[in-house]
């Protein structure tokens, strides 16, 4: 890298949080070494770099580790030149951080076992608002409210260019598409959520995104292998009971 900077990213498939950091590095135009971690046998480098949580992703910049994906994203934005992921306007920065926190809270990817079927679900908050209408994720993120608030009618949450919210939500696209394959459920239905459906396709077609987003088939294969492993384990337990 220019200036003698050395970047290493400790990551593992199929973490969307690692994908998030890869997207940020890509949109900043930064080169880095990807260090693949085996989370069943964590390396000494990972354990020493993130001794509190012992999780990926960890970004190591010139020997100094930074942990937690959103902390890493803001560090990348502040430490390196290039397209800004966060506007300099304090209010707009606050709005972006609100939606990032909302997405992390409401759209966590969950992989679970239910009735012999192993699948992915992006949870939906079905609470009602004060007027009695459907609220939560459907009205806010999935209904396009976040995009309207952040983009001001422009293509991305960041406006004319990709920003922090785009990267946060965009890191989940492969998981969402895998969910659709495995369950038949449409996450961002063009008929119900046209703004988010259009944004998803627009974001996924960017050159940087194409290079970073994991292959959907790989996610589907991962879930199916987990399902087979758990089914075999359940069968052994049942036979021994």
TrEMBL record:
CDD domains: GST_C_Tau (cd03185), GST_N_Tau (cd03058). Residues 89-231 form the GST C-terminal domain. Keywords: Cytoplasm, Transferase. It is an enzyme of class 2 (transferase). Residues 5-84 form the GST N-terminal domain. Its EC number is 2.5.1.18. It comes from the Eukaryota. It catalyses: RX + glutathione = an S-substituted glutathione + a halide anion + H(+). Pfam families: GST_C_2 (PF13410), GST_N (PF02798). It is found in: Cytoplasm, Cytosol. Its main location: cytoplasm. One of its GO terms (cellular component) is cytoplasm. GO terms for molecular function: glutathione transferase activity. The keyword Nucleotide-binding does not apply. InterPro entries: Glutathione-S-Trfase_C-like, Glutathione-S-Trfase_C_sf, Glutathione_S-Trfase, Glutathione_S-Trfase_N, GST_C_Tau, Omega/Tau-like, Thioredoxin-like_sf. One of its GO terms (biological process) is glutathione metabolic process. PANTHER family: GLUTATHIONE S-TRANSFERASE, GST, SUPERFAMILY, GST DOMAIN CONTAINING, OS10G0530500 PROTEIN. Is involved in the conjugation of reduced glutathione to a wide number of exogenous and endogenous hydrophobic electrophiles. Belongs to the GST superfamily. Tau family. This is Glutathione S-transferase.
